[in-house]
Specification:
Beta-Lactamase; Alpha-Beta Plaits; 8-stranded mixed β-sheet; 13 helices; elongated
């Protein structure tokens, strides 16, 4: 006689299921044929739509809970092959409210009581846990999307800033994007040295050249003049067609003497560079090359942002600006004229010739002016690199000196092409 003959099946089942009476899960016990024998009170409260499930098939109960057939097949397959099964995410809708459970089940074995051999399992409510997980995932996804948006906006701003930099002098660009001062409403009265240049008879040239060639000529000219102006520390005010307006002394100044010296040195370097590029421009259809007049004046100007609410221009206003333009108009081609104020500042370092006096249009007083011949010292005020070479057989002029490495690479390619032509029969 074995032990189970001394105890009733109901008592043993009730006793074995005792631990699940106060469980927080929905627990069940089914026999080996998967017929439900016991459920705890939570099972009934979790799934009130099931009613009394005693002796009901566990698989029918799962179907009644609208658990997908694929998950039921997994439940049966793994329980049979492994002896236990875990479905981590089971969606069950009760009274229109969806909840998420995990279903854990395992075979039970007892040598003394055969009717305890069956399947024991429990539904664990994971709804809050999955909600928190979903919120965490949503926050993570939103964070990723926000980061992507920020990165895209940063790329757009960088592109915009790079484009904007081409429309502004480096000093003005730096001031606008710095937080050190409010440059939008900034105006000041300063002693500046103002430079104005113009190409002789450029209007006639623009009427005769093809648009592409004209663009190549003027862009190469302005690119080279701009590079020299930046190297010398000048603030490029604007381009007016072929005319160039540059001033020294704002937003940075090294003193009025050094500002004037740097401006004159810039003019000399520009004239030298124009002379170096004459051959290039002749090949583009400018038979006589380009001839440039330059004027420089020093005096007090008002500098700052001027314009409307829709558009501002950081520029200088004052008689020195007009005087620089008048001196440029009076200069001979390929020469630079300076006023007496500028001359008094730079006479110790620059060779000049007094040209006389004139009363410029718009001025009530006579102005003495001088022609710049060169620096008294053999060294330039602002160091520079030679970007031209004239040899016995080859003349090289670097048109775009902003990328000297690219120019060197292009010369190497030309060398390779010439060597291949020499090797060919």
């Amino acid at each position: 006689m074995n032990a189970e003959q001394f105890f009733s099946e109901k008592s043993i089942l009730d006793l074995s299921f005792f631990n699940f009476r106060n469980a927080i899960t929905a627990a069940y016990f089914a026999n080996q044929d998967l017929e439900i024998q016991r459920v705890n009170s939570n099972f009934k409260s979790f799934f009130p739509i099931l009613g009394n499930v005693t002796n009901a098939s566990l698989l029918d109960v799962l179907e009644q809970l609208n658990i997908p057939g694929k998950q039921i097949d997994t439940f049966v397959s793994e329980l049979s092959s492994q002896g236990s099964v875990l479905l981590p995410e089971v969606h069950i809708t009760i009274d229109g409210q969806e909840k998420i459970y995990s279903l854990l089940s395992t075979h039970t074995k007892d040598l003394d009581f055969s009717y305890l051999n069956g399947v024991q399992g429990q539904f664990v409510d994971r709804t809050l846990e999955w909600q928190l997980k979903k919120e965490r995932e949503d926050l993570l996804e939103q964070k990723i999307r926000d980061r992507e948006i920020i990165e895209e906006k940063s790329r757009q701003l960088e592109i915009l800033a790079n484009r904007l930099a081409k429309y502004l002098s480096p000093q003005i660009y730096s001031s606008i994007f710095s937080q050190s001062e409010n440059v939008v409403n900034r105006h000041a009265r300063k002693n500046l040295t103002v430079f104005f240049s113009d190409i002789v008879q450029f209007t006639d040239l623009s009427d005769t050249l093809e648009p592409e060639r004209l663009a190549a000529v003027i862009n190469s000219y302005l690119s080279e003049m701009t590079k020299i102006a930046i190297e010398c520390g000048g603030t490029i005010d604007k381009f007016i067609g072929d005319a160039v307006l540059v001033f020294f002394g704002d937003p940075d100044s090294e003193g009025e003497v050094k500002d004037a010296l740097k401006c004159v040195d810039m003019a000399l370097r520009m004239q030298a560079r124009v002379a170096e590029l004459q051959g290039y421009w002749r090949k583009l259809g400018v038979p006589n090359g380009l001839r440039v007049r330059m004027g420089i004046a020093t005096g007090y100007c008002t500098v700052g942002n001027f314009g409307s609410d829709q558009r501002l221009d950081y520029t200088v206003l004052g008689s020195p600006v007009n005087l620089a333009a008048r001196l440029q108009g009076a200069a001979e081609p390929n020469t630079t004229l300076i006023d007496h104020s500028t001359h008094s500042l730079i006479s110790n370092a620059v060779e000049t010739i007094f040209k006389g006096e004139m009363t410029p249009r718009g001025f009530s007083r006579t102005i003495g002016y001088h022609e710049v011949k060169g620096l008294k010292s053999s060294s330039s005020i602002v160091s520079s690199q030679a970007l031209s070479h004239v040899g016995e057989h080859v003349e090289v002029n670097v048109i775009d000196s902003s990328n000297i490495r690219a120019a060197i690479e292009e010369l190497r390619q030309i060398q390779t092409q010439f060597e291949k032509q020499l090797q060919s029969p």
